Amino acid sequence: MTATFSLEVEVSRKAQSLPHYAIIPNIVAIGLGVNGTTYVDVWIGQSPRYRRTLKKWREEVWFVEFTAVQCTALNLFAGRSVQLHIALAESPMPLEFTSLLELDPVLRDRWEKVSPSVARLALEHIRQGKKAETRKRRAAELCERLIRCEIPEGKVTSG
Questions:
Q1: Mean of the per-residue pLDDT values for the chain?
Q2: Considering only CA atoms, which of 57, 66, 64, 122 is closest in space to residue 96?
Q3: Are 122 and 138 in contact (CB under 8 A)?
Q4: φ, ψ (nearest 5 deg) of residue 59
Q5: How distant is the alpha carbon of residue 138 from its chain centre?
Q6: What digits encode the pLDDT tens for the residues 6-27?
Q7: What residues pair up with 20 in beta bridges, in sequence order?
Q8: Who contacts 91 (Cβ-Cβ below 8 Å, separation ≥6)?
Q9: Nearest-angstrom CA–CA distance, 78 and 133
Q10: Degrees (nearest 5) of the Cα angle 10, 11, 13?
Q11: Is 151's pLDDT higher than 80?
Q12: Which stretches of the chain are DSSP H helices?
C-alpha cells in the first residue's frame, strides 16, 4: 500500500490558454519517494481518482495540472481552495512487458537495475497505448533499449 497525503491547496492558473494546477510542497514529493516527474493519483473528497503527473517546477516546489474536463467535474477554478489527496499511481506491470521479461533473464536483470522513477515512466508509456499492437511494440522497444543499455534519465518515448 502506497502512502497517501492530504493537503489544502489553492487551484491556480497563469493564463486562459494554460491548464489549472495546484502547487505541491517538496515535503509531499519526498514522502512519496520521488525525485523526478512521476505519475500520481489525485482526488478530492469522494471524487474518482485521476491519474496525473507530478512535476518539479523549481527548487522545493512541485505541481499537478488538471484537465478542463477534471476542472468541470470537480468544480475547480483559479482561487478555489480544496483538500487534495495524492498518492503514487498504482502501476501493475503491463502483460506485454512481463511476458518479454519472463523469456530473458539478462533482460530481467537489467530491468531490475532501472530506477523506480524511470521504470514507472517506461511502464506508463507502454500502458497508455490504446491498441494491443501499440503496447506490444512499445514493450519490444523498451526491451531493445534495455539490451543496448539506452534507458534515458527521463521520460521514455518512442522516436
A1: 89
A2: 122
A3: no
A4: -50, 130
A5: 17
A6: 999 999 999 999 999 999 999 9
A7: 66
A8: 39, 120, 123, 124, 127
A9: 40
A10: 130
A11: no
A12: 26-32, 68-74, 95-103, 105-112, 116-127, 132-147
Cβ contact 4:86 at 8 Å: yes
pLDDT tens, residue by residue, 61-87: 999 999 999 999 999 999 999 999 999
Q: Give the integer Cα–Cα distance in Å for 115 and 119.
A: 6
Residues of CATH 2.40.30.100 domain(s) within the chain? 4-88
Count other C-beta atoms under 10 Å from residue 42's C-beta: 22
Secondary structure element (H or E) that encloses residue 86, with its range: strand 81-88
Torsion 111-112-113-114 (CA) sign: positive
Q: 108 has which bridge partners?
A: none
For residues 151 and 116, the answer to whether their CB atoms sit within 8 Å is no
Contacts of 22 (CB under 8 A, 6+ apart): 9, 10, 11, 12, 63, 64, 66, 82, 84
Task: Decide if domain 4-88 falls under CATH 2.40.30.100.
Answer: yes
